Protein 1
Amino acid sequence: MRLVVMGTGPFAVPTLRALQASEHEVLVVVARPPRGRRREPAPPMVAAAEELGLPVWRPESANLSESQERLRGYEADLMVVCDYGEILKDATLGVTRLGGVNLHGSLLPKYRGAAPVQWAVLNGDAESGSTVIQMTPGLDAGPSLGQSRLAIDPHETAGELEERLSEAGAPLVLRVIGELAAGTATPELQDKSQATKAPRLSKEQGLVDWSRSAQKIKNHIRGMAPWPRAFTFVPMEKGEPLRLVIDRVDVVEGAGAPGPVAPGTVLEAKERLVVACGEGALELLDVQPAGKRRMAATDFLRGAAIKPGNSMRTDL
């Protein structure tokens, strides 16, 4: 099959490599254009395409009439889209013989949107996966052409899960393209009643709410890694509270205190850093104080005047 591959971020790179190594022909890699005037590093798909010797095109929008005309000129059989960053119109999808397919990092119809992997981890899901859909103008709403499933490790971050899903998605895309070429693909309509949203995260959402249970806060911290990263504020003897990024934690089994304590209260601050939650407690393992490198919480304690009874701030 003659393919136009559209993608910008890292999730699409394993699929591009698999397509280039297959019997199919990648005609061009289409990526989103540079933002602003500053010179930025090439996005992952552009870097991968250049490494593979593939032509790259970065239009302002694939939905412009001149872009559609150029895409039509490739005379491609199929458009393969993944981690691209723009919703494609019907007229854009119609420039190839078989339209477009999209690799999405969730078990659709669950988690439609820009951050499906992050929301799966944030919600503490035990399972995730990838779906290849036949593209429509709706957001991740097209018929499913195939799915693959992965168990989520209870300690892995959204970034780690996303990397595994991106690798597992490549053979799924190849399988679907093979079925489309053979005329054996069987599209299945998504159940709209089961659809959930996975909107893009913001930096502010990284703020830890200590009133939640220890397990939910751990899921929050896992889901915020590697971006925007979870954080809290630590009281200092002098000056403003210190912004502390939290990268890795573990639930402390059987943790307790002599009496009722407010969520966010430091329970231990010597051999380890333990903080009370709305239910249970968390041991902070890896942290990054503002203006410093990431470090073990034990190293942070050596230079920070934190004592049991201090309270982590849950407000900006």
Protein 2
Amino acid sequence: MSDSPIFGDISLYANNFSYMGRRLTRELTDDIDAVVLGIPYDMATTGRPGTRFGPNGVRQASVSLRWEEARWPWRFVLFDRLQVVDYGDVDFQPGNDADMVKRVQHDAGRILAAGKKLVSFGGDHFVTLPLLRAAHKVHGKMALIHFDAHTDTYADGSEYDHGTMFYHAPKERLIDTEHSIQVGIRTEYGYDDHPFAVIDAATANDLQAEQIVQQIKARVGDLPVYLTFDIDCLDPAYAPGTGTPVIGGLTSDLALKIIRGLAGVNIVAADVVEVAPCYDQSDITALAGATLALEMLHLFVSE
């Protein structure tokens, strides 16, 4: 038997420690273009817990995507154009919310300040707030593209609450609501004074993906964009493994078409959150999260 590297490409299922089998490193060398980062946190969850296992679930599910070099329908091999590494998970004191926020802002800020694109895996949706803070320090005023069943603009939550991030983010001037949009919403919010544009799930399901993409692009314009995808934007038929499932959501097909349609938008960072593998024994939800993240990475180099 000939010698082979410890972590080779012979078997898809051996040594599956990182997202898409990418190199595990925290060295941000010049040849690296994009970084994936895990945030195993669910202390801000108000429904079912378990999203602390989301980053590992997404990484494990990504093994099913590794065999296809040029992912359909893209006409190029992603990793020929984009050098991606896995930074691993943010390490914070268990149960210490403030420490999590501090360390996320530090690690994400370090990655973004080095000029890298960033895709993060939650964790519950609260992690987007410290990620936005880190991105704002580097990119300034940003637009937000937000896929979710909930607007997460609720003012009556606690300091650490996965339903309040987009109440606080505009107040901290992290995002410009006049250029931000939420897609897939199907729970109550302040309809008369809501600062974000909304394409609710019922409307989205009656539209073509191209029509939704047109509205998103018109809204965000040329601003730097932060893209956040709460997996419960998908109908529970496509993503049962999440803490607050709401029926009537988007299909995985529609969501993928919309994400692909965002080619050309100035996306500087993105996340996939609220994957809770413990509620989905078949890994359907983790696979959806892993696939959405892969499409987001394609956006960084799409023409």
